[in-house]
Amino acid sequence: MVGSSLTDAEKSIANTRLKIGFVLLVAGSMALMSLYIDPTPLELAAAFGVGMIVGVVLLWFVLRNLEEFRETLR
Predict the structure, then answer these.
(1) Which one, of 51, 18, 19, lies nearest residue 32 by Cα?
(2) Where in the sequence is the domain holding 47, given as residue range(s)?
(3) Domain for residue 1, yes or no?
(4) From CA 59, how far away is CA 66, in angstroms rounded?
(5) Is residue 4 part of a domain?
(6) CA geometry: angle at 13 spanning 10 and 18, to 5°?
(7) How far is CA 62 from CA 4, 7, 22, 24, 59, in A?
(8) Rounded distance, CA 33 to CA 27, Å?
(9) Are 47 and 39 in contact (CB under 8 A)?
(10) Of 44, 5, 12, 11, which Cα lies nearest the Cα of 28?
(11) Number of folded domains in the chain?
(12) 8-53: pLDDT as tens digits
């Protein structure tokens, strides 16, 4: 059987980058959507900040459900 070519440290770094990328994707899309209403720079920053919070909550929700799904497969 062929194993993973990544070490545990590399897997950890890749997972962290994916999590950061997910949160930034949510925050960035929220900021881009706010451009539709022609915001001030402060409103744009606020939309990005709220998007970061929403992204972290979504990440927590997805990871929690993924862990429950993995437990049912065992």
Answers:
(1) 51
(2) 9-73
(3) no
(4) 10
(5) no
(6) 125
(7) 24, 24, 11, 15, 5
(8) 10
(9) yes
(10) 44
(11) 1
(12) 899 999 999 999 999 999 999 999 999 999 999 999 999 999 999 9
